[in-house]
Specification:
2 domains, 7 helices
């Protein structure tokens, strides 16, 4: 995970916010790999500020809808190898309509409103 931070996160942050900027905050869920001692230490040493995230928060990220859709499509196939799984996932991903992405992005205001109305609890999204 730290190599992803090193090769992906920091270069992206520098490009988006400036070479010496610390005016950004990293948002991660509570996946164990994000909370590992080595990752926490890396983020501290590299002065990465992390947005506090509740342990049982509902996931409002639209990509979760995409993952679920792909799981449904893939579960209907008889896949026996990781190579075939990768090929099928790539095929299904490439067949997703652009309008799906637009609809998911456009749903964010409703998602946030529903989350606020639910007092931070789970919503239909």
């Amino acid at each position: 995970m730290c190599s992803i931070y090193e090769r992906g996160l920091l270069p992206s942050a520098c490009e988006l916010f400036g070479e010496d900027s610390i005016d950004w905050i990293l948002q991660e869920d509570n996946d164990p790999k994000h909370r590992s001692k080595i990752c926490k230490k890396w983020k501290e040493e590299n002065e990465v500020t992390v947005l506090p995230w509740p342990s049982m928060s509902p996931d409002q990220n639209p990509i979760e809808n995409v993952w679920q859709l792909l799981k449904i499509k893939i579960s209907k196939k008889k896949i026996k190898t990781s190579r075939r799984l990768k090929a099928e996932l790539t095929k299904e991903w490439n067949q997703l309509p652009v309008q799906l992405a637009k609809n998911l992005v456009n749903s964010m205001e409703k998602r946030v409103t529903a989350l606020i109305n639910a007092g931070g609890d789970f919503t239909m999204y």
